[in-house]
Amino acid sequence: MLLAPVLAAPAAAAPRAPLIWAFGDSLTAGYGVPPAQGFTAQLQAELRRRGVAATVRNGGVAGDTAAQGRARLRWGLRGLGRAPDLVIVELGANDMLRGLPAGQAQANLDRILTELRARRIPVLLAGMRAAPNMGADYARAFEGMYPALARKYRVPLYPFFLDGVAGRRELIQPDGLHPNARGVAIIVRRIAPAVQRALE
User: Fold this and answer.
1) Tens place of pLDDT for every residue, the chain, 200 residues?
2) DSSP designation for 89
3) Which residues in 96-115 are b (16+ Cβ under 10 Å) and which e?
4) Which of 10, 24, 55, 172 has the fewest CB atoms lying closer than 10 Å?
5) For residues 41 and 58, what is the distance between their CA atoms, to the nearest angstrom?
6) How many CB atoms lie within 10 A of CB 127?
7) Is 9 in a helix, a strand, or coil?
8) CB 125 within 8 A of CB 158
9) What number of CA atoms fall less than 13 Å from residue 4's CA on the CB side?
10) Strands 157-158 and 123-126: what pairing?
């Protein structure tokens, strides 16, 4: 009896690990904390604890306004080597701290989101709140731009990047602005579910 040769089915390719780019300012850059305790390192570890084998790359530059972020967006994307599966856009805080017009920040964030949409790159937009001394009118315009942009581009919004940390002195560095390692851990625990949903 002739035996037909058994051809082994080709092995299924392993799914590609998601690549996340945290594109922002000092808050995503991990200002003032050791690299292993910064936002991107802690977020990557938290996602892997949740069963998401993602790589999180640091695209934060301390001091960047939304305009400066827009200016480096394209070469930053090229530097990743491949299109990310998600970009966390976290910009605007430095515009607010410098008292720059909220409309200017919104226009630059709009350009960033336009570019990412043209490239079909998913986005999670992270919002920020205005400092109390900026006044009610400024706060209304500044804080309102994030939900307005999220609606326009139909992207998920994480309303306040510093949720759970802002105003808690034990979680903030001596400069009064940046989270310490404990603060970063809280930010990461709170934002991780939104990041996971945005990847899905």
Assistant:
1) 444 444 444 445 556 899 999 999 999 999 999 999 999 999 999 999 999 999 999 999 999 999 999 999 999 999 999 999 999 999 999 999 999 999 999 999 999 999 999 999 999 999 999 999 999 999 999 999 999 999 999 999 999 999 999 999 999 999 999 999 999 999 999 999 999 999 98
2) E
3) bbeebebeebbebbbbbbee
4) 10
5) 9
6) 23
7) coil
8) yes
9) 3
10) parallel
* Beta-sheet pairing, 86-90 with 55-60: unpaired
Q: In which element (H, E) is residue 185 found? A: helix 181-199
CB atoms near residue 67 (< 10 Å) = 18
Pull the structure tokens for residue 158.
């994480």
126 backbone dihedrals φ, ψ, rounded to 5°: -105, 125
CA distance 155 to 69: 19
Q: Which of 25, 64, 95, 178 is catalytic?
A: 178
- How many angstroms separate the CA atoms of 80 and 131, rounded? 34
How much is the CA Rg of the chain, to the nearest whole Å? 20
Q: 26, 64, 95, 110: which one is catalytic?
A: 26
Dihedral pair phi/psi, residue 120, rounded to 5°: 60, 40
Q: In this structure, what DSSP letter does residue 60 have?
A: E
134 exposure class (CB count in 10 Å sphere: 0-12, 13-18, 19+): middle
25 is catalytic: no
**Is 178 a known active-site residue?**
yes
